[in-house]
């Protein structure tokens, strides 16, 4: 080869050929499966890049619950992916969206059996598994299909439990016996589970008094390294809190508790049980999410003063009850937690009572509060009062989200006033706040 051809060759060669592996891997990371497969046909180097472990650590597999030609290949492609790249998986999320009939649930169950079997044989890296909103108590899940799916999941967790760190089975809707069997499979190999993050919100079917089940307390006692636990209030009992205190006090940081109007929530929990747990787990923060549980006497039964409440969400879902009043909760109950509250979310229909004064006082009394969101009937000047308090240093909000309900279709007057308030406090808003305020007709 002469000197002239040697000089010409680098200019003719594509710059992609000299691209470093780390850059090429980043390009592949942004491609979908089909584009990755096509790119792998370009050359040997690109084909080798296709099998880079970094590309396949995270995966969300979504199955449509509706019969469709467009989604017909979802089940086959999921199995293909797991067989080819499943050994690299570290974080897996599986979604099955609103199954339409028993034919699709059967197809999903068979696919899951093959998928979990393949993972169990070839994968020893999986750290996180999320299978949410299966709603197995719906009629589309026949007993045999439901039983086979639970069996496959339990068998897989027996193997994966050794390395699994995060498990979410939110919305599974199981019986107490079924739910405990699945959770218990995590501890089969060593007698205890080292899962650090567990999400079992809506894991059990509605109306079940899980708190009265000795089997559930015994199952939860096998978890020894929980950092974060998410569950429903119908699972909370003195026995559960004592077990968490005994086995997880060193690691436990967060408990998220959902309390729904259709879940049993009248059980008696002793304040000393919460106090003991809070004392042993010194970093513990508890977040409550109430759905249509709004009456003061019910809330007071749940929100004991010994609980280190960090976040609180109260949602009535647009339901209005003239006999219900939010005022006692705002003035008597919530100030109990003024030293720990950091996040407050309110969504309620208070058309029958004005609460501006009570809300302003609550915000100013919670000195650690940094997040405040409210959808309610409010005076537009409520926003100005909060911003003035922020400017004067009486509160330290970083997020302020307000939806002001009105009884009129037109909100021109409210919008004009809100624009004036924004102009007046624009410097404060731009420098300190994640700010969203809107007037909304509630007819």
UniProtKB/TrEMBL annotation:
<dbReference type="Pfam" id="PF12937">
    <property type="entry name" value="F-box-like"/>
</dbReference>
<dbReference type="InterPro" id="IPR032675">
    <property type="entry name" value="LRR_dom_sf"/>
</dbReference>
<keyword id="KW-0833">Ubl conjugation pathway</keyword>
<dbReference type="InterPro" id="IPR036047">
    <property type="entry name" value="F-box-like_dom_sf"/>
</dbReference>
<dbReference type="InterPro" id="IPR045048">
    <property type="entry name" value="FBXO31/39"/>
</dbReference>
<dbReference type="InterPro" id="IPR001810">
    <property type="entry name" value="F-box_dom"/>
</dbReference>
<feature type="domain" description="F-box">
    <location>
        <begin position="13"/>
        <end position="59"/>
    </location>
</feature>
<protein>
    <recommendedName>
        <fullName>F-box domain-containing protein</fullName>
    </recommendedName>
</protein>
């Amino acid at each position: 080869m002469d000197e002239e051809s040697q000089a010409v060759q680098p200019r003719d060669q594509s710059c992609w050929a000299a691209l470093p592996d780390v850059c090429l891997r980043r390009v592949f990371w942004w491609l979908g499966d089909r584009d990755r497969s096509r790119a792998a046909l370009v050359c040997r180097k690109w084909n080798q890049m296709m099998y880079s472990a970094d590309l396949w650590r995270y995966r969300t597999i979504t199955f449509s619950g509706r019969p469709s030609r467009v989604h017909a290949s979802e089940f086959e492609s999921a199995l293909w992916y797991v067989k080819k790249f499943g050994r690299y998986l570290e974080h897996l999320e599986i979604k099955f969206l609103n199954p339409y009939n028993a034919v699709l649930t059967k197809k999903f169950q068979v696919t899951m059996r093959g998928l979990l079997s393949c993972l169990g044989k070839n994968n020893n890296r999986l750290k996180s598994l999320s299978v949410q909103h299966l709603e197995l108590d719906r009629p589309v899940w026949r007993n045999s299909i439901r039983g086979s799916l639970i069996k496959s999941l339990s068998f897989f967790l027996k193997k994966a439990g050794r390395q699994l760190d995060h498990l979410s089975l939110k919305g599974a809707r199981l019986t107490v016996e079924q739910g405990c069997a699945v959770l218990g499979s995590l501890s089969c190999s060593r007698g205890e589970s080292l899962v650090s993050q567990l999400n079992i919100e809506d894991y059990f079917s509605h109306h079940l008094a899980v708190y009265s089940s000795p089997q559930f307390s015994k199952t939860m006692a096998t978890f020894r390294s929980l950092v974060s636990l998410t569950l429903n209030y119908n699972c909370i009992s003195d026995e559960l809190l004592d077990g968490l205190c005994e086995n997880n006090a060193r690691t436990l940081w967060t408990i998220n508790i959902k309390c729904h109007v259709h879940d049993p929530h009248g059980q008696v929990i002793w304040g000393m049980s919460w106090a003991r747990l809070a004392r042993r787990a010194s970093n513990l923060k508890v977040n409550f999410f109430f759905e249509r549980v709004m009456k003061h006497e019910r809330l007071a039964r749940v929100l004991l003063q010994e609980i280190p409440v960090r976040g609180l969400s109260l949602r009535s879902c647009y339901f209005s009850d003239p006999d219900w009043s939010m005022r006692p909760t705002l003035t008597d109950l919530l100030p109990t937690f003024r030293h720990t509250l950091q996040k407050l979310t309110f969504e309620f229909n208070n058309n029958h009572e004005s609460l501006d004064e009570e809300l302003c006082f609550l915000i100013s009394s919670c000195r650690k509060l940094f997040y405040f969101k409210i959808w309610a009937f409010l005076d537009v000047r409520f926003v100005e009062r909060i911003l003035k308090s922020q400017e004067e240093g009486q509160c330290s909000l970083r997020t302020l989200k307000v939806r002001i309900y009105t009884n009129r279709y037109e909100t021109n007057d409210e919008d004009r006033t809100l624009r004036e308030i924004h102009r007046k406090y624009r410097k404060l808003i731009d420098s300190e706040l994640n700010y969203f305020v809107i007037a909304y007709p509630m007819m």
